[in-house]
Amino acid sequence: MNKSKILLIYTGGTIGMIKEAGQPYLSPFNFENILDRVKEINLLNCQLETISINNPIDSSNIQIENWIELVEIIKTNYNSFDGFVILHGTDTMSYTASALSFLIQNLTKPIILTGSQLPLGDLRTDAKEHLITSIQLARPYHDFDNNGSSSKVTNVIKEVCLYFDNKLFRGNRTTKVNSDQFKAYASFNYPELAKSGVDLKINSEDLYEPLNSNTIFHNKLDDRVSVIKLFPGISKQIVKHMLFDSYSKVVIIESYGSGNMFDFEWFIDELKSSIKKGKYIINVSQCPKGSVQMGKYESSFKLVELDIISGKDITLESAIIKSMYLLSMKLDFKNFKEMFELSISGEIS
User: Fold this and answer.
1) What is the CA radius of gyration of the chain?
2) Which of 24, 156, 217, 281 has its CA 20 to 30 A from that of 150?
3) 270 and 186, same structural domain?
4) DSSP letter assigned to residue 182
5) For helices 316-327 and 93-103, angle between their N-to-C axes, nearest 10 degrees
6) What are the tens digits of pLDDT across the range 219-241?
């Protein structure tokens, strides 16, 4: 019987750490020997191969070049494997999942990111279950002929996902919500794609279906993106400084509620001036659940007149990466706004 081929990609993070006897600190172990650490993987009937990025890092240090390196690894191995599992630190996993969802379009195979709150060698670790189930989710379904040979391989999952605490999420819909509990991630505006209990239940109707099977790999992101989080009492000087910095092209404003911003005359004037100078301004809500609905209240009506871009129900993580992705295409404002407000990879409803 043919085995599914899964590529395990290690980037760093808690999941790849162990504490050796007599050693007070955690240190990474050689992931080529993963089967020696997690022998249960042998029961999955998979052919597992491992690879690491050039310099495994704490996920707090993740940069655009690391995402491009991951894209290149997947592109190089795309035709040789049935699925991909990326082991990643938890602090920025949602950002990486969002980045890969935009940089790799029309996926025909699953890319599952996972990590852990406790290292693999810890007595109470969550790493082992995350690793085993992620590999299981990355496997395709095989149809066999009368001789027992695989005649057809079907990938149910064709998108970038994040698996954590018994739940599979669409990667670009996730946010890290807890740093000291096993339930570390949530997807507030999109249902979970699968749940692992006694049985592994996949919600097929919520899975992303690519436009076609022509997988496209991108290798550019434009980092000229900044974020302003509004708060009562924020000064005109700080707002002006952030809106008029000489480098950023996109300014994401984290607004209140359903996209509301204060409508003080000085603030509206600063927005107008910034837009006139060529800035693209995006409205993303501070609320983790719900959607931007500019014009619903009087305080946001003027934003519609200014042609502010609506983030709808996108996460901040996804909004940042999507902006980098669209900026790399060198679009004019009209096309940038149109594409941002449409779903590219299932990131908005």
Assistant:
1) 22
2) 217
3) no
4) S
5) 40
6) 999 999 999 999 999 999 999 99
Please give the mean pLDDT across all residues of the chain.
90
Both tokens of 127, joined, read 């790493």
Which residue among the candidates 14, 92, 114, 125 is catalytic per the annotation?
14
Structural domain harbouring 233: 225-340
For residue 242, CA distances in Å to 112, 234, 285 come to 36, 12, 18
Do 212 and 239 belong to one domain? no
Residues 195, 232: one domain? no
Tell me how far CA of residue 10 lies from CA of 31, 32, 89, 310, 323, in angstroms.
Answer: 7, 10, 10, 36, 27
Q: 236-243 and 265-276 are packed helices; what angle lies between their axes, rounded to 10 degrees?
A: 10
**In a shared domain, residues 75 and 126:** yes
The CATH code of the domain that includes 253 is 3.40.50.40
Residues 169, 115: Cα–Cα separation, whole Å:
13
How much helix, strand and coil, in percent to the nearest 5, is found in the chain? 30, 25, 45
pLDDT tens track for 117-130: 887 767 788 888 99
125 carries an active-site annotation: no
Note whether 58 and 199 are same-domain residues: yes
First to last CA, the chain: 41
For residues 179 and 93, what is the distance between their CA atoms, to the nearest angstrom?
A: 13
pTM: 0.92
